[in-house]
Structures are given as structure tokens and as C-alpha cells.
Design a protein that fits this description.
alpha/beta, 3-stranded antiparallel β-sheet, methionine-tRNA ligase activity, 655 residues, 49% helix, Rossmann-like_a/b/a_fold, aminoacyl-trna synthetase, 5-stranded parallel β-sheet
Length: 655
Amino acid sequence: MVPERQHPILPQEGKRNVLVTSALPYVNNVPHLGNIIGCVLSADVFARYGRLRGWNVLYVCGTDEYGTATENKAREEGLTAQQICDKYHAVHASIYQWFQVDFDFFGRTTTKKQTEIAQNIFWRLHERGFLLEDIVEQLRCEGTCPFCSYPEARGDQCDKCGKLINAVELREPTCKVCSQTPVVQSSKHLFLDLPKLEAELEQWLERSTGSGDWTANAKQITRSWVRDGLKPRCITRDLKWGTPVPHPDFSDKVFYVWFDAPIGYLSITANYTDQWEKWWKNPQQVELYNFMAKDNVPFHSVVFPCSLLGAQDNYTLVNHLVATEYLNYEDTKFSKSRGVGVFGDMAKDTGIPSDVWRFYLLYLRPEGQDSAFSWVDMATKNNSELLNNLGNFINRAGMFVSKFFESCVPAMALQQEDKRLLAQVGWELKQYINLMDRVKIRDALKCILNISRHGNQYIQVNEPWKKIKGDETDRQRSGTVTGVSVNVACLLSVMLQPYMPTVSQTIRRQLNAPPSVTGTLLQGTGNFVCSLPAGHHIGTVSPLFQKLESEQIESLKKRFGGQQVSTVVKPATTPASGPAAQTAVNGIDAERARELTLAVAEQGEKVRTLKGQKAEKTVIGAEVTKLLELKKQLSLAEGKDPEPVLTKELCKRLQ
């Protein structure tokens, strides 16, 4: 049996000790589906699987709460930074609870432990000569990326191309606070001397990537950083909201969030147990898995490991760095301001169970390339894979036992056809274990669906509902097919547990499966055994899934599609009072301008993509016309004269 968890969970001699972390979600907003699948949900599936395998697993996460974005959000909502953190920490915790993400501990970074551990690592780096001082020309702003022209690059890194930026390199920089062009200022800061640690980092990377399950994108991103040559990395910021720098010459500064935030894994564990060092200073006994989206890779594969290597305190470093690509929404990106996409706090209001959400997100998990959430596809996968394939097989197997054999599993006399099915099922089970061991979560899910497909075909060919009405031989054959099928259904309940925990529990309850079944089937190399022997009494069987109707899906698609950009310009309104008020003065509508800036960027990207694909001129022309109209509206929202309409000749040149 899989033992009940006894907290605190600590490494054990003779066990596989697995420490699982997911990138700490930033506290200042509500996570969308892409955020959820990229880190916490993927890590949850693997942690659940590890527990089924009998590993000693600790899964920790928490909200990342310091930094500029929190200060900006507090200003926007008229709250203090701490109030913003308290508010959104609770929002995050509630969302993950609804999605059944089973953390062993979900903490936060605004704690005394965070200050103690971060400052300790800082002093160790300082004492060993791995910190530098330098003057920085800085802006607190966003602007256009000098590398890829993304319009909302932050003053330290572009979220689109991932390149590091000095804020003074941004084109058209704009202050986040007052929307004016900021003034360049000089400030003395501390830097982590990455070049000095580069040789040690490369030796560690060679060992870790060679022996661990690093995703291809994690390896590629890390290689590109190291190949381009490491540069000193600033670890301090001129802010108030953050972990204080303890050095007397920098007492007016805090640690930069990307030095500070990964240390949150350690401090969150320290808030879970005062024996946290048994996990984090124990590389001989502990395997560390980091889950994240690809934009977080360099901080977990270069910056954070260098901080720990430089501290020279026997820290546990990542063995398996698991990074996803991006999940988009339909044919665009998630956008809270434009009401585009499903955010975590909205999912339960759709009436669709959290297990179905989990299934679909994991089915299209962006493992090798970006993928896109689609309402129509979600309905299709629910109705075909869950309802008609998986649910149909499990329900039929249980119903045959109830209806034909008075809820008792019949005796089984295996023939060649039954053994063929068991061989297929056994092969898929071994594939599932092999894939899950290597964190191929999406591919492993397909093994579950393949088993139920084999099972449905097996039932269809053998027709137990007909044979039960025949002679003694036929009735025995009906019993064998039913008994084999219900045992396969029981296996599926276990394999489903990491993906759909409620459905898994429901199946086991309906089949009255013994508690030991969850461990028996996934231990070792994984052998399919008979868990429900002849004479086993099952419970009440009922359907597991409901059909998603096209009307329901169309309604949801419309609801989460955002407001289409109107051709009518919003009139300027009298601004509300208070720090969270939106500005709409002298013909300037700041909120509208922000929305339209995003829309212009996305439409421009669409035009460039179509041109790159050499689409038909009429198609490109239609999209160019939309782009021009958006730019015109943007000019009006910014209080400027609209740009003159382009001539047909210029439109042709654009195409």
C-alpha cells in the first residue's frame, strides 16, 4: 500500500528522495491556464505519480511576493504592498486547491526565513569574492525590446525573446507609474560575478544534463546563455519592497527578485520544517526536480545554481529541469485587461469539473512546442476521449458485472484473445511508467487512452452481452471477458490518479477496489496483476463523464473571447479619484491606449506571420486594413491626431 503521508516529510535512508518544486507564481495577478499547466499542475502530476511509485516525495511551492510588479499593483489598487500580497496569495491558494494541486506545503516569500537564508547566501558569496560593485545607468520602465521589437519589454528582460536588457537600451521607454518618458539615473549596485563561476557551472551542467531528465528546450536555452559568455548579473534594486541588502553600503536597496525569488524554495521549505537542510543541503540523498515555463530556465539553470555554487555550502542543485513551451488561448494570447482567456478563478464558474480541466490541459501540455487552448477542441476531447472512449469502457465493464453477475466479479478462464489484450495492456503500462519516469506527462496520458481503446475493441469483438444469453460455454466466455475488462478498468483508475484524482477515486469506489491497488500496479517495472479476483463484490456503477454540448461551448467561447476592438472610439470620461483611478483627461484614455497597444502589437505580429507564410495578398490586405484601423484608434486614445490613411500604393508595398 502507498502509506499515508506523515508530516514533516524528510529524506529517508534507502529510499528515492524526490524534492519537487514549481516556479513560484508571481503574486500580483491571477494565474491563467498557461501559468497553471506550465508549473504547478505539471509538478503536481509528477509528484502524485512519484508517491504511487513508492518514492519519498516532497512537493513545495508558494507565491513570489517581492519586486517592482507588486509595488505597481499596490499603487494601482490603492493598497499597501503587503495587502496586495495577502490578497493575491489567498487567491492563488484557492485556485490551486480547486484544481486539486496537492502541495505538501504552499508558502510565500515575504517571511523572516526568506530574509535569513537570502542574506546568509549573500554574505557567503561576498566573503568568497563572488560579488562586484558597479555603477548602473537605470530606468524603471517598460518599452520596446531592442532585439525583437516586443512593445512591452521590461527594464531587465524581454518576455518574448528572453534576452537580457539594460533599461537604457529600451526603445520608447515609458514609466509604469506616470506614463511619461523616464530620466536616466546612475546608481551603485552589487553584481554576482558569473564569469568567475563559469568553469564550475559548466562542470556541474555537464553532470546534471548528462544524468538528469532535462527537457530539450531547457538544455538549448542554457547552452545559448553559456555559449554567449556569462556576464556579471546585478542582484540589487533601488526599491523598498524586497529582502533588505544587509551590507551597510547598500542599506537603501533590496535584492533583485531573480536573485531572491529562487531562494524562496529554500525558505518555503524552512517554513514547512526546521529540518529543511536535510532536503536542501543533501545532494547525495536528494533528487531535485524544477518545473517551469521556458522563460524561467536561465534563472534556474545559470543564475540560481551559480548563487548556490558560490555560497559553497553543499547545496542541493537541480537534477532534472523540466520546462514547457507556451500555452496560448485560441489564436491569440491570454490577456486579463482585454478579457481574453480563462483565468484560474474563472474555471470553476464554467460548470466543467476540475478533473476535465486537468485532463485537457495535460492532453495539450506544450512539451515540445507551443500549443493552444481551444474550446471546440476541449469539447471534442471530452466527448470522444473521456466520454466515448475511457468512460464508455470503464462504465460498460462495471455494468456487465452488476447486470449479468449480481455485482460479483466472475471466474476467468483465459484464452488466446484475452492474453493478447493483457499483453497490449501490459505493454502500455510499461510505456506509461517509462514515460512518466522521464517526465513525459502528455505522452504518458496517451497510454491510458490507448488501453481503454484496446478494451473497447475487446468488448466489441467478444460481445459479452450476447454470450451471457447463450449456453454454458458462452456464459463462461462472457464471464471471462467481463472479469478481464473490469480488472483493466481497475488498472486505469490507478494510472489516472495523477491526472484526474477525483475520477480515479470515483472509479475505485465504484469497483470497491482494495486500497492496496494504488501501489501494487505501479511498483517496480509495473506488472498488470489481477486486483479484483473472482468473487470480488463491486459497488454501484454510474457514468463518469457528461457530454459538453455545442451550445454550451459556443457560449463559453464568446464569454472568454474578450471584447472585440470596437470601431467607435470611447469618449473621454471624468477621472475617478484615488490612487487606483484610470486617467482619461484632455482626450487621453490611458486604459484604452494600453488595450489598443496590445491589440496593435498582436495584429502587427499576425501581419508579419502571414507575410512570412506568403499568404494570399487579399488575406494580408484585409489584416493590414485592420492594423491601420487599430493604429488610428490608438492615436485617438492617446490624444493625438490620427495618422493619415495609407494610400493604396503604400498598402501594396506593405503587402
